[in-house]
Every structure is written in C-alpha cells, then in structure tokens.
Please model this.
Amino acid sequence: MKTRISLFLITLTLAILIVNNTKAQTTDVTENDTFIWLEDAQGAQALDWVKAQNDLTLKEFSSDPNFPKFQDIALTILNSKNRIPYGSYEGNQVYNFWQDEAHVKGILRRTSLKEYIKKNPRWETVLDIDKLSADEGKDYVYGGTTLLPPGRTRGMIALSVGGGDAVIYREFDYESKSFVKDGFSLPEAKSDVAWYDSNTLLVGTDFGPGSMTSSGYPRLTKMWKRGTPLSEAATILEGEISDVSAAASVSFRPEGELFFLSRGINFWESIRWLVDSSGNKTELPFPRDSYIMPFKGRLLARLNSEWLGLPEGSLVALKIADLQSPDLQSKIDVIFKPDDKSVIGYVICIKDYILVTVLENVRAKALYYWPDESGGADQWNHGHINLPDMGSIGITSADDFSNTLMLSYDDFLTPTKLYLLDNPGATPREIKSLPESFAVDKLKVEQFFATSKDGTSIPYFMVSRKDLKLDGANPTLLYGYGGFRSLEMPSYSRTLGKIWLTNGGVYVLANIRGGGEFGPRWHKAGLLENRQKVFDDFIAIAEDLCRRRVTSPAHLGIMGGSNGGLLVGVSFIQRPDLFKAVVCQVPLLDMLRYTKIGAGASWMAEYGDPEIPEQRAFIEKYSPYQNLKSGVKYPEVFFETSTADDRVHPAHARKMAAKMEQMGYKVYFSEEMSGGHSSGADNIHRAQTFALEYTYLWKMLK
Model:
C-alpha cells in the first residue's frame, strides 16, 4: 500500500512539473512573438496593417491586364442566370437561396416542385436579405434556417453580421413571410438551436461566464418554453469546459420523434443519450466516433472504429428496442461492409430508404437499402441508382417525410446535372444542368499514383490538354486538403475551366491521407503524430509531377484552404525548392498557439494539444510559423483570410505574412472584411478573390 502511495505521489509530482514546464514553454512562445498584436481581429493597429497590406496587393495585381479580365469572367459566372438553383424540397415547397447582381446579399425564395422542374420557374420571395439589411442598418449574411417538421411553416433563421460562425437567430413564419412578433430570438453567438415542438426550443448559447467550452461553443443546453424568458429555461445537459460542445436534438420522422442529448468530448467523439418521454436517458452503445441516424424504429451507425468484430467503415442497424440487450452482437444488422476497394462516402435517410454513396478508388456510385421484415428477422434489400459513376454524386435534397429526392452528378469535364427521383428505384430524370462553360474536347482527365515517403501509394487526378507536352514547362496547380475526413472528389468548376484549363494550365487534385476517400483508415493515417505523412503525401505528388515532366518547380503552384492552408504552409516551408507559387487560404499556421485563437481548441483530436509535451514535440516540428528560417529561398506566398472568420482566426495568415516580411521575404496578403471562413459574403467580393488568385498564379507560373 505504501509503495502504491509513493508511486502516486511521484506520478503527481511529475505531472505538476510537466504542466509547469508546458506553461513555461507556452509563455515563451507568446513572449517571443512580436506579432501577437495581430491576434486582435478588430484592433485598430491590426486593421491599419491589414488595410496597408490589402492596398499593396490590390495595387500590384489590379494593374496586371489579366486582373480585370479574370474578374469579369468570375463575376459573369457567379451572377449567371444559367446556374442551377439548388433546391431543398421541404413541406411540399422547394426552397432556394439566390444571389446575383440584383440581389447582392441574396433572397430566400420558394416554388412548387411542379414549377421547379420547369426551365424558368416562377419564384416567390420569402425573405430579401438586401432589404432586411437596409431596413435594419446591418450587414447581414444569411446563415440558413432550422425548419420545424413536418409542416415546416416555422423556422429559426440564422443571420450573421459579416459572415462569421456567430449568428443571430430569429423565429420566422413561412406562411406570412415575416419574423414572428415576440417570437423566439437569440443574440449573436455561436449557438446551437433545435426544435423540440412548436412551442419549445432546445438551445445552447452564450448564457454568460462559464457557459461556453474552451472551444467557444455551448457547454449548456436548455429547454426554452415559448412566452418565458431565456433566463428561466431549464438546463437539460451540462458538458465540461474541456468539451467541444453540448447539444440536444429531436429527430422528426413519420414513425415518431426521438429526443437525443450529446456531449462532444472532442471533435470526433461524442457521448450520446436517447431520452424517453419520462426523461430517462439511455446511453447509446455504439463507438463514440460513430455517425448515428434514426430510421424506422432503428438506429443506424456508420462505424469509424471497429466494434464487436465489425470493421471500421461499416454501416449497421440496431433496433431501438434492443439498445440495452445483453447480447448486442446478435441483434446487429450489417447493411454495408467495406472492402479494399469500396468505402462509404455519405449516408442519408429518407422516408422508406437509406441512401448510401460508395467510393471505389475515389469514384462514386449511389446505392439504396430498405428493410424486408416479412420473414421476421431483418433482411436488407438494396438497389443501385443509375447515374454515371466516374465522378461525384451529391445528395442535394432528401426529406424524412418523403421518398422524393434530388441528386447531382459532375466531374472535371462534365457540367453539373441535377436529377429528380420520385423514389430511389425510379429512373432519374434530369431536370437541371449547367451549360458547358468551357471547351472540353481538347482536355483529358487521368488518375495517377505517387509513392509517399513510407511507400504508401497516393492517388491523384490530373486535368490537362490532350496534347500536353511533357517538357516540364506546363503551369500546374496542385490542390489539396488532407484532413477531417474530407472527400476531395472530381467536380466541374467553371472558373477553373475558363481561366486556367483552357489557357493551358494543368490542374491536379490530391487524395492524400487525412481525408476520407478510403474510409476511416485513410483519415486516421494522418492524425496527430502521423500528421507529417499528410505533408509527405502532398510533396510526393509534387515530386511525381516533376519526375514525369508534367511540370517543374519553376512552374508548379499549390493551393489549399483552412486545413489545406496548413498543408500548403508546411509544404513550402519543408520544400521551398519545389514550388514557385503558394495560395494559402484562410490557413492555420501558428500551430503552437492554434488552440488559443479562433475555434482552435475544438480540433485537438485532429492535430494534438501543444500544452502536452509529447504532442507539442511533433507539432512544433512542422508548425509553419515557428519553422520559418532566414536565408531560405521561399516562394512569394499569397496569403488570404477574412476579418470576420471566427473559425480559423485571421491572425494565422496575418502573423505569417508579417513575420516573412520582417525577415525580408516578399509576400502578398489579402484580407476580406466580411464573409467568414468561406471568405466573401457576396459575388462581387468572390469575383475579386478569384481574380487575385489567378492573376497571381499566371504571373508566377508562366
């Protein structure tokens, strides 16, 4: 017993020493950071610096003859009447949010399904954001709506001022097309809102000191009754400060409602409970990193970890009545099991079917499943939706109370087509399509594989001219993301096509580890201490392009945003000899302080915690901000960010640009004042961003 106590005290002492040492390290980073003042997003000194940088960049590129040409092309595309008005079919209406030159901030509009399938449908305006902004003197950006099923005549509309993740919620009546007088309303915050019933909201928001997690999201969830002040709402869930968030939701389906509580203990794992009508909670037995969906008296789980002998990536079903069965394994139905070639892309439920997109070597196909219970034990039937399977399939509209759905298909050279199906077994009807925006007859798409540093084969797509000369002189843009299970799939881009491909540029899309293209294993291979493998994969593709003489370092550019901004930031730091141009969009770059700015603390399950010495050790090896060196021939990097980005703080791009300038390096910097993490709240600003990017790329890579 004494030995155990002694070991405990020794362990405790070591832990205290480690914590103190970690705090000292963190303090040193802060004290030695001469650009810490740029972390004040709205600070006068910081904004003066931003304005000066913006002016220099715009002056540099606006005088280039390509700039006005590219800006006009981009704005014409963005405002084109020939765009597909993607609609969400809800409550017998198709809703669409639309922006053009007459509706800069946009309008929320609707029409009937019968009208929607026409070439030129008649639309009814539900809410005009330009008019609302003018009437109330606010720079509103529409953030979506939370409708109450099944009637969907009431919704909580989200409006941000400037485009950030923090939004104002206001109750809206879709019959009168007006905000509800004395209805539910929440001030601007990173809130979580869901309907419990027509007179009750489930709310997580900033209730005051201690109510938000260290990640900046709600820690408390309350049940708010209509006609009562928010201060009297009853707390139904309380998370920890160290959690990412706490939330509650109700699944509305034809067979009934299900009430869930969820504690997001990190970005990937949540503890979830099903709550019955008496308030009793049953913790769900699935792995905490599973995706859970209710369907016809069952819970579906898309597994991201092995469970009861089932491989990660499987889709399974368990009847709600069997949730507490002592023999769970015998109660589980396996709907889909992955293999070496096939993994799940997306899963969504409609009234009577489960829709599953499956990727086979980063090429999509669409399947559907439904239970046949006529024989007692569940038997799952399945079918295949007849769509092309060489590109990307998107589920653009699906509803729990209907079997009607809309799917889209596109690839690099095929303009997007929108299909309507009365049910998944019906023949898809093409109802909308983009016109061909650039000539594709002289272009080709190929898939290649590069060998990464550890021997892993890494796929990538390449779009180029059919008569491409392998002379190492082709301007080439390599795009990547590599994180958060993101699927990087072939897609049709009119701006890329008209400004880059038809002018002889080569485009390359990387399917590196950290993403979800090959299921959970592909994502996990790039997590935490394995993050360097993601960067190695990207660099291996760049090297392969040069080895095959597609391009050379003098003509090779890279682009990535958010986590992809980190990717390109690390890549040019580690291999400055390999790249001539770098477009670093809304990036993470100071990885030793990322948990302390923006929403960074929520991503520790992806990157690690720099407060933990073992994790700090692998983070600081690649953190771009800390690994800048003097006397290195770095490319002239183009940094882009947004003042209103409250997810990835603009300080990352600001500080990196300022530090490089101080060290004598030439950089370009552009910061939008609005638009949030997506950067650019309207088409005018988006067009300018495209023009800046492509003008820079052509200047660097020709």
Observations:
- The domain at 41-75+439-701 is CATH 3.40.50.1820 (Rossmann fold).
- DSSP finds 15 helices and 37 strands in the chain.
- Residues 583 and 693 are 7 Å apart (CA to CA).
- The mean pLDDT is 94.
